[in-house]
Amino acid sequence: MTEPRREIKTRDTKWAQALASFVASKTNITPNAISVMSVFCGLLAFVAYCGYMVPQMPQKFYFLLPIVAIIGIQSRLLCNLIDGMVAVEGGKKSAVGGIYNEFPDRLSDTLIIVGAGVAGASWISLTLGLLAALFAIFTAYTRVLGGAIGTDQYFTGPMAKQHRMAFLTVINVICIGAIWIPDINLYAYPAALVIITLGCVVTIYRRVALIAKELKEKAGE
Fold first, then answer.
1. Average per-residue pLDDT for the chain
2. pTM above threshold 0.90
3. pLDDT one-digit tens code per residue, 63-87
4. Is 190 domain-assigned?
5. Considering the domain boundaries, does residue 99 fall inside one?
6. 158: buried, middle or exposed (CB in 10 Å: 19+, 13-18, 0-12)?
7. Residue 215 burial (CB < 10 Å; 0-12/13-18/19+)?
8. Contacts of 100 (CB under 8 A, 6+ apart)
9. Within 10 Å of residue 90's Cβ, how many Cβ atoms?
10. Which terminus, N or C, of the chain has the lesser number of Cβ atoms within 10 Å?
11. Phi, psi for 160 (deg, rounded to 5)
12. Is residue 5 included in any domain, yes or no?
């Protein structure tokens, strides 16, 4: 059975293909190891977000934290891109690849989103981070549920993984403005988490609707 893959335009770019080819043919790095590396990238973003809670850090250095978070987020996405390419195009698929394809993603997602809640520097923001992370997990659960009961796995948004990460990257860019706008993190991150949560609710609804529609079509209803 062919494992479903998210449609990613970057997969067709020359640089991505060259990088995946190099990793597959010139190194001993496995796709599963790359998937695990994505968790450490998420941890980097989480640690950067925790910097907002360090009382000794001068406000003028706050602009560095979202930059590090962006590096963590984009590195995580790069791992997510390359692991599949090394596995499929590079011919390094393993029997347990499906586990590594899913489980580390949930960990890195949670680290990054909850980290954004920490960056808001309030218990309300942290609560929003936990809530957004929970709904992010449910979007993935809904997708995998479809595959488990015999339908396609739907990667539709508006807050699929790549959408959440792209949105948080934009928020981090905005928060670099801490150089000029003190405490911008107190408002930007909580607002972003509300939007992510609401977007995930819509995403879950859309995916469930698509799964139900396909099941009914198969049943001839």
1. 91
2. yes
3. 899 999 999 999 999 999 998 889 8
4. yes
5. yes
6. middle
7. middle
8. 31, 32, 35, 36, 83, 94
9. 19
10. N
11. -70, 175
12. no
Nearest to 159 by CA among 206, 195, 203: 203
Inter-CA distances, 211 with 60, 145, 147, Å: 49, 9, 9
Residues in the chain: 221
What's at 7, amino acid-wise?
A: E
Assess whether pLDDT exceeds 80 at residue 201. Answer: yes
pLDDT tens, position by position, 93-127: 888 888 998 999 999 999 999 999 999 999 999 99
Residue 4 within any structural domain of the chain: no
Cis amide leading into 4 (omega within 30): no
Domain, as residue range, for 189: 10-218
Token pair of 206 as six digits: 């859309």
CA distance 142 to 37: 25
Q: Structurally, how many domains does the chain consist of?
A: 1
Place of tokens 């469930």: 208
| Position 121, amino acid | A
**Is the model's pLDDT at 134 over the cut of 70?**
yes
| 150 phi-psi bin (left φ>0, alpha ψ -120 to 50, beta other) | left
